[in-house]
Amino acid sequence: MDALERNILGLLARNSERSLQDMATELGIPSSTLHQKIKRLETKGAINGYQARLDLRAVGLKTTSFVSLTPIDPAAPDNVPEQLESIEEIEGCWSVAGTHSYIVKVNVAEPADLEALLANIRAAANVRTETTVVLSTAFENRPPKLPESTQTDSI
């Protein structure tokens, strides 16, 4: 991946709604070149989609929590993600190293909904849970700092 492609990714990560013409002007390249580069980055998997960022509070999801999961039976098959993927309140699921096996991020309207969701998670995946409720968010959804050079220089 060259420096121009990293710059393009940075611009898109900060604001994918900008027009191609605006970004091309900022980058000092023709918009046709920018369009080709973006299509190439999409094809190679460096860009895997575009989405709207919702204000969760504005849509009624006022309680965000991180829930750490530990299997009750360590000898059982590790299929926690598969057991949880249909639960729509779960925004993301990460396998982690440490005391717990997984962490999920959940969004619900109110604490009573969180209580019901935790019971659902425990039953669906046969796990113990430890929950951290978010009180406020200082920042999130920041674009990643891209390395100067990567092992994906073939992109």
Offer a concise description of the structure.
This protein is an alpha+beta fold and 155 residues long. The chain has helices at 3-14, 20-27, 31-43, 80-84, 111-125; strands spanning 63-71, 90-95, 102-108, 127-133. Keywords: DNA-binding, Transcription, Transcription regulation.
Overview of this protein structure:
The chain is an alpha+beta fold and 155 residues long. It has 2 domains: 3-43, Arc Repressor Mutant, subunit A; 63-133, Lrp/AsnC effector binding domain/regulation of amino acid metabolism (RAM) domain (Alpha-Beta Plaits, 2-Layer Sandwich), CATH 3.30.70.920. It is built from 5 helices and 4 strands. It has helices at residues 3-14, 20-27, 31-43, 80-84, 111-125, and strands spanning 63-71, 90-95, 102-108, 127-133. Strands 2-3-1-4 form a 4-stranded antiparallel beta sheet. Helix 2 (20-27) packs across helix 3. The longest helix is centred in the C-terminal third of the chain and has 15 residues, at 111-125. It is elongated. It starts with a helix and ends in a 22-residue tail after the last strand.
Fraction of residues in H or I helices:
25-40%
Strand order of the largest sheet: 2-3-1-4
Round the mean pLDDT to the nearest integer and report it. 94
The N- to C-terminal Cα distance equals: 5 Å
The ordered H/E elements are HHHEHEEHE
Q: How large is the count of helical segments?
A: 5
Largest sheet: 4 strands, antiparallel
Strand content: 15-25%
Query: Any idea what the radius of gyration is?
Result: 20 Å
Principal-axes geometry comes out as: elongated
CATH domain class name of the largest domain: Alpha Beta
What name goes with the CATH superfamily of the largest domain?
A: Lrp/AsnC effector binding domain/regulation of amino acid metabolism (RAM) domain
Query: How many domains make up the coordinates?
Result: 2
Give the low-pLDDT segments: none
According to DSSP, the number of beta strands is: 4
Keywords: DNA-binding, Transcription, Transcription regulation
InterPro entries: AsnC-type_HTH_dom (IPR000485), Dimeric_a/b-barrel (IPR011008), Tscrpt_reg_AsnC-like (IPR019888), Tscrpt_reg_AsnC/Lrp_C (IPR019887), WH-like_DNA-bd_sf (IPR036388), WH_DNA-bd_sf (IPR036390)
GO molecular function: sequence-specific DNA binding
Pfam families: AsnC_trans_reg, HTH_24
